[in-house]
Amino acid sequence: MLVVMHTTATPADIDAVCRVIAEMGYSAVPMPGEQRTAIGVVGNDGRVDDTNVVGLAGVAQVIHVSRPYKQVSREWRPENTIVQIAPGVAFGGNAIVIVAGPCYVESEEQILSAARAVRAAGGTALRGGAFKPRSSPYSFQGLGKRGLELLALARAETGLPVVTEAMDEAGAELVAEYADCIQIGARNMQNYSLLKAAGRIGKPVLLKRGMAATITDLLLSAEYILAEGNTQVILCERGLRSFDTAARNMFDLNAIPIVQKMSHLPIIADPSHGTGLRDKVIPMTRAAVAAGADGILVEMHPNPERAKSDGAQSLYPEQFARLMEEVRLIAQAIGREISPPPGT
Ligand code: PEP
Ligand code: MN
């Protein structure tokens, strides 16, 4: 339930509404807006009886949020949430953020060379895994803390903010010390203790859709993070498992406009995991920008043949540079722009 206050409501009116909500056994979350304050009610699992609230002084309207998720819904917050991961790098506004880099951090030389290529092509942020969830326990699992240190080194040299994955609660604390945005991967989308930890830490979170998750599942997972008080969540479509083996995944671009209608959170697209092959990544990146994605997460490796993982879907630096030129034109055609690297 959302209690919308009149523009003329006084702080005392707002306090009184919050008190009544607390007496009903729920938590009140006041959200001051430019014109008026709205007070969200959390802690209920079903429709709340509003009889004690509707008649209170200063109350303009009571809105019952009809979705199972609340704080992530557009009913709760009609305007877009802007998620800023670093000065000048924000998701959810007019500018489309391009996050690029290798699947994994493999070495100092590799990540620095990738970061330089991202920066030179005009990419906005750097990606790269230090902790990697692998389907097989025998696959390379990442450099761990050393990988985070190398990402920080690449940021210091290029100025690009860093997006990297955390796999568990303890890992999230460590990742938060180094990264500008904590990625929660498809395999962990329903790892509720990780979601809560990321919510408590309060850093921006990039939450990827699980490979068999519905859009509602994705939004409910995001709700776990918001329920801990962290509204800085970016959603990511990365393709679904399907009956069709022609591509690695079924890249669900429908999710972009659907999520934008259902939620105020920004949504980006990952055509690398969405398709699995670099010659498909290029057209589907163009398509994701055209579909209205607030950002792109794309794998690019200085030497894809040598990549320890996901080489076949990693772009060559020259391909990435050309793609940047193309998406600039597509963004312009739909009245948007590509967010430049910070400091430019
Ligand atoms: C990744 O982005 O490197 C990754 C592992 O993606 P996903 O969680 O979508 O499989
Ligand atoms: Mn990958």
Bound molecules: phosphoenolpyruvate, manganese (II) ion
Average pLDDT metric: 95
Element pattern in H and E: EHEEHEEEEHEHEHEHEHEHEHHEHE
Q: Number of DSSP helices?
A: 11
Low-confidence stretches: none
Distance between the first and last residues' Cα: 43 Å
SS content category? alpha/beta
Count all strands and give the number. Answer: 15
Shape: elongated
SS strand fraction: 15-25%
The helicity comes to: 25-40%
What does the radius of gyration come to?
Answer: 21 Å
Largest sheet: 9 strands, parallel
Describe, in plain words, how this protein is organized in 3D.
The chain is α/β, with parallel strands linked by helices and 344 residues long. 35% of the residues lie in helices and 19% in strands. The chain is built from eleven helices and 15 strands. The chain has helices at 11-23, 51-54, 108-121, 145-158, 169-178, 192-201, 215-227, 255-262, 271-275, 278-290, 317-333; strands at residues 2-5, 27-32, 37-42, 59-63, 83-86, 89-91, 95-101, 125-127, 162-165, 181-184, 205-208, 233-237, 267-269, 295-299, 337-338. The strands form three sheets. Strands 7, 8, 9, 10, 11, 12, 13, 14 and 15 form a nine-stranded parallel sheet that branches. A hairpin with a 2-residue loop joins strand 5 and strand 6 (89-91). Helix 3 runs parallel beside helix 11 (317-333). The longest helix has 17 residues, at 317-333. The protein is elongated. Phosphoenolpyruvate is lined by residues 103, 129, 185-187, 208, 238, 273.
